[in-house]
């Protein structure tokens, strides 16, 4: 799989955790910071260098005198001006804390509701046992695509940042903060998806039908909703808005179509692999657009997420049909999706700092990342 310097990496099964970092030193992800873990950290010195530094300090320190240290000036307290001074993984902690503190999940019977600030974003109904059994057939049928999509499936076990980078011509030399925004969106989405998975507690397809025989290790958490679908569609939502802010691609419409199709393909690949039902994809994609919209609000972007209620039905997943439903268009089938009012979240300093940096990384900006 192609690598982009220290950007992104192969996460743990299910998309949380990972190896590598955004523009920095890699680390093994087990804290929930995923690709951010260790990014921007120097790491320990080797023993020889540590001893050399110590003896050098002892040998030269006397020339600086023995008086009092000079009085420093304070850094601005609680200010986004300090963001650029922090390692990537520190900023990741700030993004995560800033977002999660306004998140609320409530469970009533078979319904799990995700709220953000004072608004409801998504309400998802737990599928019945009969629906799980019926959806297993879709998973078995999708296995025919495994030979064609095996490389994609394996390389997308973690966050598939490289696939989004391919479409938008991203490179860490010019797109450092855009890649950080993508990774932050993925990490936040993974956290939220795990919270919803825990609440709904749905068995994986191979635990329902032994004939499914997944081509990858079954993740150690519930199936519903799909975290990959959540992450892909939240990134899609954020990147479509970022492309509008850039206004630097003459073929914006075509790139937008490619991003939408990519999010759908990443999502469906998990069903091909044998670890997700199509209904997981619907739930995850609906959740992802809501999270993406909430992140954009935090970034100070006038973008509204749509409230979505999902009551699973026995249908396949189609990303373009979800787009049509969100736009208020009529579709032929009953996918169990009901779209409600628009929701706009409030901005925060840490996210506006990141957005402002990423917005300057358009292909026509004279000083990328400044």
TrEMBL record:
One protein family per Pfam: PAP2
Organism in which the protein naturally occurs: Litoreibacter arenae DSM 19593
Domain Phosphatidic acid phosphatase type 2/haloperoxidase: start-end pairs: 189-295
InterPro entries with a match to the protein in the record: PAP2/HPO, PAP2/HPO_sf
Full protein name: Phosphoesterase, PA-phosphatase related protein
